[in-house]
Amino acid sequence: MESGSLDSYIEIENLTFYRGERLIFDDISVNIPRGKVTAIMGPSGTGKTTLLRLIGGQLKPTRGRVCVDGQDIAKLSRKELYLAREKMGMLFQSGALFSDLTVFENVAFPLRVHTRLPDVMVRDIVLMKLEAVGLRGARDLMPSQLSGGMTRRVALARSIVLDPAMVMYDEPFAGQDPIAMGMLVKLIRLLNDSLGLTSVLVSHDVAESASISDHLIILADGKVIGQGTPSQLKNSDSELVRQFMNGLPDGPVPFHYPAQTFGNDLLNL
Amino acid sequence: MYSRWIELLVGIFMLAGVGALLVLALQVSGLTLAKGGDSYTIYAQFDDLGGLSVRGKVAMAGVTIGKVSAIELDKKTFSAKVSLTIDSDVDFLSIDSTAAINTAGLLGEKYVSISMGADEQSLKPGDVIYDTQSALNIEKLIGNFATGK
Amino acid sequence: MLDQVRSLGRNGLQTLQTLGRSGVFLFFVIFTSQSIRISFPLLVRQLYSVGVLSLVIIIVSGLFIGMVLGLQGYNILVDYGSEQAIGQMVALTLVRELGPVVTALLFAGRAGSALTAEIGLMKATEQLSSMEMMGVDPITRVISPRFWAGFISMPILAMIFSVVGIWGGMMVGVDWLGVYEGSFWANMQASVDFQDDVMNGVIKSIVFGAVCSWIAVFQGYDLVPTSEGISIATTKTVVYSSLAVLGLDFVLTAVMFGGV
Fold first, then answer.
1. What percentage of chain C reaches a pLDDT higher than 90?
2. Percentage above 70 pLDDT, chain C
């Protein structure tokens, strides 16, 4: 399956990005299909989160283009960028709830900033979104009183409160217990299908990501090493892709950090 | 998110700031609200200022009637020319008034004391008081006493 | 040797770069546009946490410093038989110097470090990023109200400090040591000038307010978003603010009172 044939929501062309001296992305081109759940996977430190920030316009590419819904994000003015971001929801790894606001006010925040809806209507929308993530009863709690899974669900409610066209999830499963993980997996799929969203999720939990994604992209060493449906990738020819997908401890990504042989090390005092 | 209580406390805080400024102005620096600040300037020539400085007070019978606004050296007479800014409601200083530099207490600050003359004409803005008494110079006094003069 | 020179040069360049970045940052913080409807409640909220919550430490310190000044001043002045001058001594010291300076030092320790830590924590927990992603500028929303709250609070706190200190000095001098109250106030009023002493003190504290708040919010915004980064930045805020206040105090004093 070639991704070019799909209706793409995000088009990344020849993207090169340096952080300081370090090369993060080396001339990658990726398309993310509209209305699907796409998972971007890769070993830690390959810049998956950086890719989300490039899509959100918080970082600018060194070379190449990142187009979201036909707009080149890096070329937008500050004002246009902020408008474009109203159509993007983003779920941060830590949830990023505002610690001085209650759950209700956290979810209401984007509405209060971007709209002038009357309080009654804000209340209705917020309760509706909280109901969708199953936390309507927790609306008066402060973020510090929530468990990790609940924090992410509140953050999810907040990221969809403006009815965005796309939601980005940054490591939604990291550090979650199996129950919370199961709930998130269900929610992401459900929201994607019921709201017609384009979902982009960044993760290194292979099993969970594979179970909900329509499309997978695997990054390593600044390059795209494989993309396609989960089943395609599981049976990929590339050894690296197979190592990652099956979670093998040794392979092209070595278990040992490069060093001289152990025997030599022991003898050379 | 932000309650009535916080608003109230911040209001009290701001008010406390204004109150503190008022206390500093009225009680500490003795600023009076009543004076409009209308004033006129006269001059006085002294041989020796003995430490009188700008913004020292000008008093008559101990009552403050103005302040020293400038001090310069008169190039012709080689004496000090002191500008005295007098409140405009004190418009009855006669032209033969005398000015002296006194000290408030033994170690206090120097101020200009004006004594009323007898003439019926009053000093006008820009007039000069020539009949002056310079600062009491303690060193000179002790010196005179020691040499028996 | 060559390496040392090179690293010196690199450090120098980095310092300059940080200074430039903080300058640009200050520009954005000051010239931010937001409707009053949104920014006013935010400012009130910050005035509460920066100003009102600093009141206790300011009042207690002011009281004790005033009392110590009264006691020390009395012990020295009584030798010259001019203990009535205690009022003017306490008032001038507080209004010109100790009020603005000690308030600024306490402010840096109490409010400045709290600002840095709070902003740093918001950065570390991605709250600032998420705000950006929601199409809200964190500088307008988070930084600006905090900066202005510090800027407004400082002179108010400094004036309250001076007043409480003078009252403490009076308590010691007049009520305990028996200086005549009339001469206490009269001496004070004769020597303290509103323009030259009180207003200059207020101007000092306005300058300190701007500098301390600037340092605090910049350190918070610019830190490395880890727990270690936050602790380093908090320390930096207190150290830099204290040094800046003491250094600026000398310059301002020289300009205002030194006849330079």
1. 56
2. 99
Of B129, B136, B75, the C-alpha closest to B103 is: B136
Chosen for mutation from C156, C187, C188 (greatest number of chain B CBs closer than 10 Å) is C156
Q: Minimal Cα distance from A101: which residue of B?
A: B1
The beta-carbon neighbor of A85 closest among C121, C122, C134 is C134
Question: Is B27 in contact with C185 (Cβ distance < 8 A)?
Answer: yes
- From first to last of its 149 residues, what are the pLDDT tens digits of chain B? 457 888 889 999 999 999 998 888 888 877 765 555 678 888 988 888 877 877 777 888 878 788 888 888 888 888 888 888 888 888 888 888 888 888 776 666 778 888 888 888 888 888 888 888 877 777 777 888 888 76
Q: Which residue has the tokens 């030194």?
A: C258
d(CA A227, CA A2) in angstroms, rounded, equals: 9
CA distance A107 to A123: 10
Range of the domain at C67: 36-255
Answer whether residue C194 shows pLDDT above 80: yes
Comparing A174-178, B95-99, C62-66, C77-81, which segment has the lowest mean pLDDT?
Answer: A174-178
Q: What is the mean pLDDT of residues C144-148?
A: 93
| Residue C119: pLDDT over 60 | yes
Q: Domain-by-domain residue ranges, chain B?
A: 1-34, 39-135
Chain C hits for B29, CB-CB cut-off 8 Å, are 189, 192-194, 197-198
Residue pair B82/B43 in contact (Cβ under 8 Å)? The answer is yes
pTM of the full structure? 0.79
Selecting from C38, C126, C137 the residue whose C-beta is nearest the C-beta of A93 gives: C126
Residues in contact with A30: Cβ distance below 8 Å, sequence separation at least 6, in sequence order: A3, A10, A12, A15, A217, A224, A227
- C94 within some domain: yes
**Candidates C52, C155, C196; nearest CB to B13:** C52
For residue C26, tell me if it sits in a domain: no
- Give me the number of domains chain C comprises: 1
Does residue C5 lie within any of the structural domains?
no
The pLDDT of residue B33: 56
**C33 interface with A at CB cutoff 8 Å:** no
Calculate how close chain A gets to B2, using CA atoms only, in Å: 10
Q: What is the full DSSP assignment across chain A?
A: --GGGS-EEEEEEEEEEEETTEEEEEEEEEEEETTSEEEEE-STTSSHHHHHHHHTTSS--SEEEEEETTEEGGGS-HHHHHHHHTTEEEE-TT----TTS-HHHHHHHHHHHH----HHHHHHHHHHHHHHTT-GGGTTS-GGGS-HHHHHHHHHHHHTTT--SEEEEESTTTT--HHHHHHHHHHHHHHHHHHT-EEEEEES-HHHHHHH-SEEEEEETTEEEEEE-HHHHHT-S-HHHHHHHHT-SSSSS-SSPS-S-HHHHHH--
Asked if the structure places residue C169 within a domain, the reply is: yes
Indicate the pLDDT class of residue A3, thresholds 50, 70 and 90: very low
Q: C-chain residues within 8 Å CB-CB of A113?
A: 38, 134-136
C:132-171 residues touching chain B, CB 8 A cutoff: 153, 155-156, 159-160, 162-163, 166
Residue A269 confidence class, pLDDT cut points 50, 70, 90: low
C189–B9: do the CB atoms touch at under 8 Å?
no
Alpha-carbon distance of A240 to C26, in angstroms, equals 48
pLDDT tens, position by position, A48-91 = 888 888 888 888 888 888 888 888 888 888 888 888 888 888 88
d(CA B119, nearest CA chain C) in Å:
32
Give the model's pLDDT for residue A73.
Answer: 85
What residues of C are in contact with residue B23 (Cβ under 8 Å)? 163
